[in-house]
Amino acid sequence: MRIENIALKLAVKIDKYNEKYPVSIKQMQAVLTWYIHNFIILGSAVLAGIITDKLFQTLLTAGSIALLRALSGGAHAKTLERCILITMGALIVIPHFELSKLMTSIVTGISLLLVLWFAPSNSEPPKFSNKLHPFLKMLAAVLVSLNFFLNSSIIGLAFLIQSCSLIPSRKGGATECR
């Protein structure tokens, strides 16, 4: 069953008993979809982190991707299910990679170039006015640049995955990676 369908069923049930705070079923469905989507991703990643004894690294990966994504934007997968698979894959796999200091610097440099070239990207609907775009780009670039000092392979790989989602597709729209 698709996440949107589960959220719709929940929204209809909540609406049935919700007399105090009238909210449209469509709005409730959107919010519930977001919560279910994020719960599946984070819950699965945290469980995998606990099982593999990489919980801190998993949370560091999630926080790094989320923080850079908030500043830089990025493409969305065509479906929530694809988004879940891509994001869970990144959150579960990245904590198990250890790069050399040189490779971490190279990965961070590539991420910085992508952020400087493409950020902010594809905010649908736009979260911030266009006047803030240079500021968001600067904040995203500073965030990525911090990893030159931290030299964390986990943060570097997380930033690389996120910064790849900034690259426009050949069709003119955003890429499907996330």
Give a nutshell description of this structure.
By secondary structure, this protein is mainly α. The chain is 69% helix and 0% strand.
Descriptive notes:
The protein is mainly α and 178 residues long. The chain contains seven helices and no strands. The radius of gyration is 18 Å and the shape is globular. The protein starts with a helix and ends in a 14-residue tail after the last helix.
Distance between the termini: 22 Å
Largest sheet: none
Rg for CA atoms: 18 Å
What is the SS-derived class? Answer: mainly alpha
Percentage of residues assigned to helices: 55-70%
Tally of alpha and pi helices: 7
- Pick out the low-confidence regions: 173-178
State which percent range the strand residues make up: under 5%
What is the typical, i.e. mean, pLDDT? 88
The strand count comes to 0
* String of helices and strands: HHHHHHH
Name the shape in a single word. globular
Q: How would the blueprint of this fold be written?
A:
Layout: H1 3-17, H2 25-51, H3 55-72, H4 80-93, H5 101-118, H6 133-150, H7 153-164
Helix pairs in contact: 1-2, 2-3, 2-4, 3-7, 5-6, 5-7
List keywords for this structure.
178 residues; mainly alpha; globular; 69% helix; single chain
